[in-house]
């Protein structure tokens, strides 16, 4: 079984006192300070509230010209899969961890607006709608063809009557 925080703190202060002259009140203060430091480290290691606390409110991390990565606090125009891979996260896991909706773009608002404008100018929404309709029609046609083939296979073949050949005597 491991040592308690109090035992570790007392050993650290005792080692410090053996190398430097310390008054009784200095030892008490050092003991309290060391104990608090060890307690904070233990909380972080166990994944307590300080470990996952974002540097800012997640809702405020997406700004007009940049997005703040809540993992490292750096500013980016867009959080890419490659950037998030450094923290062993996928974009979906990042969104879930920090409470973003699944449809929330991980990009600066200005970049998202620029992309939206370009997509509308190119008519990508209409093209996507046509492609989806064509895909649905092709799937329905394939399904109907498969159903027809299944019916044809399922019909029993007509049995031929066995004819007897007469023996010649």
Descriptors:
single chain, 169 residues, Arc Repressor Mutant, subunit A, 2 domains, two-stranded antiparallel sheet, 56% helix
Task: Outline the structure in words.
The protein is an all-alpha fold and 169 residues long. The protein is elongated. It has helices spanning 5-19, 24-45, 81-85, 91-98, 109-122, 124-154, and strands at 67-68, 75-76. It has 2 domains: 5-45; 54-140, Arc Repressor Mutant, subunit A (Orthogonal Bundle), CATH 1.10.10.1550. It has a two-stranded antiparallel sheet.
Entry summary:
This protein is an all-alpha fold. The protein is 56% helix and 2% strand. The protein has helices spanning 5-19, 24-45, 81-85, 91-98, 109-122, 124-154; strands at 67-68, 75-76.
What is the typical, i.e. mean, pLDDT? 86
In the CATH hierarchy, what is the superfamily of the largest domain? Answer: ROS/MUCR transcriptional regulator protein
Percent in helix:
55-70%
CATH class of the largest domain: Mainly Alpha
Total E-strand runs: 2
Q: Taking Cα atoms only, what radius of gyration do you get, to the nearest Å?
A: 36 Å
User: How widely separated are the two ends?
Assistant: 105 Å
Structural class: mainly alpha
Q: Low-confidence runs (pLDDT<50, min 5 residues)?
A: none
Secondary-structure element string: HHEEHHHH
Major β-sheet, in short?
A: 2 strands, antiparallel
Beta-strand fraction estimate: under 5%
Strand order of the largest sheet: 1-2
The CATH topology annotation of the largest domain reads as: Arc Repressor Mutant, subunit A
Shape, per Cα inertia axes: elongated
Q: What's the CATH architecture name of the largest domain?
A: Orthogonal Bundle
- How many individual domains? 2
Q: What is the count of DSSP helices, taking H or I runs of 4+ residues?
A: 6
């Amino acid at each position: 079984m491991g040592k308690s925080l109090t035992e570790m703190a007392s050993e650290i202060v005792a080692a410090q006192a053996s190398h430097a002259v310390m008054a009784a009140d200095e030892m008490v203060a050092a003991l309290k300070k060391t104990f608090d430091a060890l307690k904070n480290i233990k909380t972080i290691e166990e994944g307590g509230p300080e470990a996952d606390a974002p540097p800012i409110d997640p809702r405020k991390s997406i700004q007009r010209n940049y997005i703040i990565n809540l993992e490292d606090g750096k500013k980016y125009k867009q959080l890419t899969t490659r950037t998030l891979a450094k923290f062993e996260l996928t974009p979906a896991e990042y969104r879930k961890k920090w409470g973003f909706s699944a449809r929330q773009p991980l990009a600066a608002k200005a970049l998202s607006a620029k992309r939206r404008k370009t997509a509308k100018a190119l008519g990508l929404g209409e093209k996507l709608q046509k492609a989806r309709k064509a895909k649905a029609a092709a799937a329905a046609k394939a399904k109907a063809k498969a159903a027809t083939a299944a019916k044809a296979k399922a019909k029993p073949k007509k049995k031929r009557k066995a004819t007897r050949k007469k023996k010649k005597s």
